[in-house]
Design brief:
The complex is a heterodimer of chains A (about 170) and B (about 775). With about 170 residues, chain A is an alpha/beta fold. Chain A contains five helices and twelve strands. Chain A has a six-stranded parallel beta sheet with strand order 1-12-7-4-2-3. A four-stranded mixed beta sheet of chain A has the order 8-5-6-9. In chain A, strands 10-11 form a two-stranded antiparallel ribbon. With about 775 residues, chain B is α/β, with parallel strands linked by helices. Chain B contains 36 helices and 19 strands. Chain B has a six-stranded parallel beta sheet, with helices on both faces. The longest helix of chain B has 20 residues. The chains are: A alpha/beta (about 170), B alpha/beta (about 775). Chains A and B meet through helix 3, helix 4, helix 5, strand 9 and strand 10 of A and helix 8, helix 9, helix 10, helix 11 and helix 12 of B. Bound molecules: iron/sulfur cluster. The site of iron/sulfur cluster has 16 residues of chain B, from helix 14.
Chain lengths: ~170, ~775
């Protein structure tokens, strides 16, 4: 079900934007990816190492402490799946601390491969079924955190108020 | 005299809520409801997703004990604990032991509200902080949630600002005022609580038995922080939350936000397979990296974090008994989305503080409260469900919420439970009450227990009253209008004296039809044959619309009959009072009258939408399935029938078309009409037919955006609900206040619009019928 047809990616971009997340499409070149991330980072920034030969730009501190999390303005993590219909990214709750890094800072930069974009929720659950049965945890995140509890819609409640998605073109490695 | 005053007390309580909380609740719930329509319209496969969600729940509840076993196995295999608690005390005792008086942060959970968990933990000295912003506001204000999803919707922004200023002793200059400022303020305060918490308590929207995961649907991100920061996570959930597999989550994830607040999806759908691999975030030791440098992340890193402790408390508290209860079982399919609250006219006006029990609110609360708390609690607000059925198509798992309300009302009637039962504890020596007892008893050949509240009995037996009313008209009408009679009816029967009572016609529709010589279209010339069903209202009160229906169908070439034998009530009136056995008897009588007509090749044409809804929706619960099906298949709403005739080539030439006018540019315009379809008619998806017929005849139709007019059968006639009923209808005044001509399909809608607009409202069939 994995797919990176132009249609799917275009739908993903449009739906992410509809849910107030910006998508930046970049070539699958590690330097291009690092520089795209760098453009989106406001410091102090924390991050979790990216898989598949991609790297974080300078200025993104890995192995953050709780104090780093508190102070960080930006958190950079990988996303392991994306859902075109909703513009959602799926972020692991893993041992490296991806959940916390994607959650505490005001801005979340998520890096996802075009090959990991699936069309809809059904396909996403199809992929997540095996992963969860293998013991993994994840969050399907769509746009920034939000609340309407204070009398009006406010973006940025307990979680990030900005979501920037770096969509790395090309097939899965 | 205490009991009649409890009716007054209820009226006073509703009045107070309308004044203090009504505006905030109305703005929010109507906004959510609009959002639901918009967001679900974007789903191509909305209906099939709902059907799928329903069948997953049916299957899950059927197999619940096995699924619980599977879930337990999965969670325990990872080192977590599963505890099935029999009741609230049992659940609380378990959680208290885990928490042991330490600091707790919680994400929103109605199930922990049901348990009063916070009180139990605080009694041990624990500091408990709600982290959902709405829930925190309620906690600070020491109030109860007024909505199952957005617990603080009854509070305005100003009220929240005042609350923060007072609780945190803020100087005038430091007061957060805007929604943005209030949110920032709350976020900062709550972050401190989260960072110093020892235990995180969450609920769970779904639990997947095949993986041992819990799904949490939130938008703020507080549940994520609650689960990830402290090393101990306690999830508390009703046993009904278990579904078979992760893949089964798909339809629910697509439906839950759209159905509730109208969001396509909430910002976060957390899928935790606890104990999770995430390292706890120890703010107490801020200089240690949260994970060992070099720890692998991403796919394949699912080992539980060694320092994590996880407890799943599955709460029975009446649910397993509900599973065995044929009428309450459906309640367990509920995913707590709140659509039934937001789509409910009464809820939109008063909110969950009136329309709710100990914990739950809105239409489905009757099922929950009856199941987990008992009939007494359900009895306090069950009356507020009018059976309008607008929640039914809104419910993502297709629960027949009005039926649950009807059944519980019946149990309350029989179980001597209650608020509906005000007279019995009253002053037995009062002569006036006694006289009405006599009157009501004489009028009520029903199947109900002797102690039933006379008001319910009166409304439930409207058919008998109507017969008597017509037989003695106009005397009956004059007598009913006398001041002292109205005062006594108000006092003892709870019939609001502000309402005009129905005026009974001396000549019934059946009489008229017979006296004018029966059918006028010969059998040989007839395009079709039909029975116009002389429902109680059409036959005795709104006789003109019955005549209009006959003339219309005849003009379209239908051989019409209005047989005396068919002049039997559908059972709608007793049903609305929870008098299920009486309704069943009426349904049987109606079937006996109408099925032979259908078998003889005649169509049954129904003018009153609530009666058609009884045939189509409730009869399957009251009659053998095959009978109910044949009756439903052979019956048509009047304008639906006209629509079908016109579609099949009948000539509309004999009908009354709209007058044409000229617009500013000299073009032709149709006559404008405002049309309010009956709530149950809309649930049957029959609004469009009326609109299409009117448009075909040249009318420019504006349809109402209001779910229910507020009258809802007898509801608006009840003294204690009169003001609420008028408030529910208020949006119709806003929309239709300037309309020149207003049409409505339901009898009670016509009465209500009459009262609201001070105008005389016609049934659409009267608008299009040929002149007499
Ligand atoms: S009964 Fe249906 S509509 Fe009401 S809260 Fe439950 S799932 Fe939602």
């Amino acid at each position: 079900m994995q797919s990176d047809t132009p249609d799917e990616c275009a739908a993903f971009v449009a739906n992410a934007e509809r849910h107030h997340a910006a998508v930046h499409r970049v070539d699958p070149d590690p330097d291009a990816v690092a520089s795209a991330i760098a453009d989106l980072v406001a410091e102090p920034a924390v991050g979790v190492r990216l898989p598949g030969g991609l790297s974080l730009p300078d200025g993104v501190a890995t192995d953050p402490t709780p104090a780093d999390l508190d102070a960080a303005v930006t958190g950079v993590t990988a996303a392991t799946l994306a859902v075109a219909d909703y513009g959602s990214v799926v972020v692991c709750s893993d041992a490296a601390g991806t959940e916390a890094v994607s959650l505490f800072p005001d801005r979340h930069v998520a890096v996802v491969r075009a090959g990991d974009v699936v069309p809809g929720m059904r396909e996403a659950m199809g992929v997540l079924g095996d992963r969860l049965r293998a013991g993994e945890s994840a969050v399907i995140a769509t746009g920034p955190s939000a609340t309407a509890d204070m009398g009006d819609l406010v973006v940025g409640a307990h979680g990030p108020r900005e979501v920037e998605i770096v969509l790395v073109e090309g097939d899965r490695e | 005299m205490s009991k009649p005053s409890s009716r007054d007390e209820r009226a006073a309580r509703i009045r107070e809520l309308l004044e203090t909380e009504g505006d905030a609740v109305a703005a929010n719930t109507r906004g959510f409801n609009r959002g639901r329509y918009e967001s679900t319209a974007d789903l191509d496969d909305y209906e099939s997703l709902k059907a799928e969600a329903r069948s997953i729940k049916e299957d899950a509840i059927e197999r619940l004990p096995d699924l619980i076993d599977d879930l337990r196995e999965r969670v325990e295999a990872r080192g977590g604990t599963v505890y099935v608690a029999d009741d609230a005390a049992d659940a609380n005792a378990y959680v208290r032991e885990v928490v042991d008086g330490e600091n707790v942060v919680k994400s929103k959970s109605m199930t922990t509200e049901e348990l009063d968990l916070n009180d139990a933990l605080e009694a041990d000295g624990a500091r408990v902080t709600e982290t959902d912003l709405g829930e925190w506001v309620i906690q600070l204000a020491d109030e109860e949630p007024s909505h199952i999803v957005a617990p603080g919707i009854h509070k305005s922004r100003e009220a929240i600002a005042d609350l923060f200023a007072e609780r945190f002793d803020l100087a005038e200059d430091d007061r957060p005022e805007t929604a943005e400022e209030l949110t920032r303020f709350a976020r900062e305060k709550l972050l401190t609580e989260i960072e110093t918490a020892d235990v995180g308590v969450t609920g769970a929207n779904f639990l997947t038995a095949d993986s041992g995961s819990l799904a949490l649907v939130t938008s703020e991100g507080n549940a994520r922080k609650t689960a990830v920061v402290p090393d101990t996570h306690v999830a508390v959930a009703g046993v009904e939350k278990v579904i078979p597999s992760v893949e089964d989550l798909a339809p629910f994830v697509e439906l839950i936000g759209r159905s509730g607040t109208g969001q396509d999806i909430t910002s976060y759908v957390s899928l935790f397979t606890p104990p999770t691999p995430s390292p706890p975030v120890r703010f107490g030791g801020p200089d240690e990296p949260i994970a060992d440098p070099g720890t692998a992340g991403g796919v394949g890193a699912g080992e539980p974090h060694p320092e994590r402790d996880f407890h799943l408390v599955l709460v029975d508290n009446g649910r397993l008994a509900m599973r065995e209860d044929d009428d309450l079982r459906e309640t367990l399919y509920c995913i707590r989305c709140s659509a039934c609250s937001n789509s409910c006219g009464n809820f939109q006006s008063v909110g969950g503080h009136a329309f709710g029990g100990e914990t739950y609110s809105g239409g489905i609360a009757t099922g929950w409260e009856a199941g987990v708390e008992g009939l007494d609690t359900a009895a306090e607000f069950n009356d507020l469900c009018t059976g309008c059925s607008r929640c039914v198509p809104a419910c993502p798992v297709g629960i027949d919420i009005p039926w649950i309300n009807t059944v519980v009302r019946d149990r309350i009637n029989r179980g001597d439970h209650g608020v509906g039962d005000e007279r019995r504890d009253g002053d037995p020596g009062d002569g006036v009450a006694g006289e009405f007892d006599f009157l009501v008893d004489g009028l009520t050949p029903d199947e109900e227990p002797a102690g039933l509240d006379p008001a319910k009995r009166l409304f439930g037996n409207f058919e008998t009253l109507a017969r008597l009313g017509s037989a003695t008209a106009p005397l009956s009408n004059r007598a009913a209008d006398l001041g002292p009679v109205r005062a006594a009816m108000d006092r003892w029967l709870g019939v609001a004296r502000e309402r005009d009572l129905p005026k009974f016609e001396r000549e019934t529709l059946v009489d008229w039809f017979r006296d004018r010589g029966g059918p006028r279209v010969s059998e040989s010339m007839a395009r079709r044959e039909a029975v116009v069903y002389p429902d109680v209202y059409t036959n005795h009160v709104a006789v003109d619309r019955g005549k209009a229906a006959v003339r219309t169908l005849e003009a379209l070439g239908v051989r019409v009959t209005v047989p005396e034998s068919a002049a039997v009530g559908s059972g709608r009136a007793p049903l609305s009072q929870g008098m299920v056995e009486t309704a069943r008897r009426k349904a049987e009588r109606c079937r006996d009258a109408l099925l032979p007509e259908i078998e003889a090749g005649r169509d049954v044409v129904v003018i009153e939408p609530s009666d058609l809804a009884a045939f189509e929706r409730e009869y399957e619960r009251l009659l053998p399935e095959a009978d109910a099906e044949r009756l439903a298949d052979g019956s048509y709403e009047a304008l639906e029938y006209v629509y079908g005739l016109l579609e099949h080539g009948a000539d509309a030439g004999g009908l009354t078309a709209a007058e044409t006018g000229r617009d500013g540019d000299g073009g032709e315009t149709g006559e404008p009409v405002a049309y309010h379809a009956h709530c149950q008619q809309r649930t049957l998806e029959l609004e469009a037919h009326t609109v299409a017929v009117l448009e075909r005849l040249g009318y420019e139709v504006t349809t109402s955006e209001t779910e229910c007019c507020g009258m809802a059968g007898s509801f608006g006639y009840k003294s204690e609900y009169y003001e609420l009923s008028m408030d529910v209808g208020e949006p119709l005044v806003e929309q239709f206040g300037d309309a020149e001509r207003v049409l409505a399909s339901g009898t009670s809608c016509c009465e209500q619009l009459d009262a609201l607009l001070g105008d005389s409202i016609e049934h659409p069939i009267e608008a299009i019928a040929p002149e007499p």
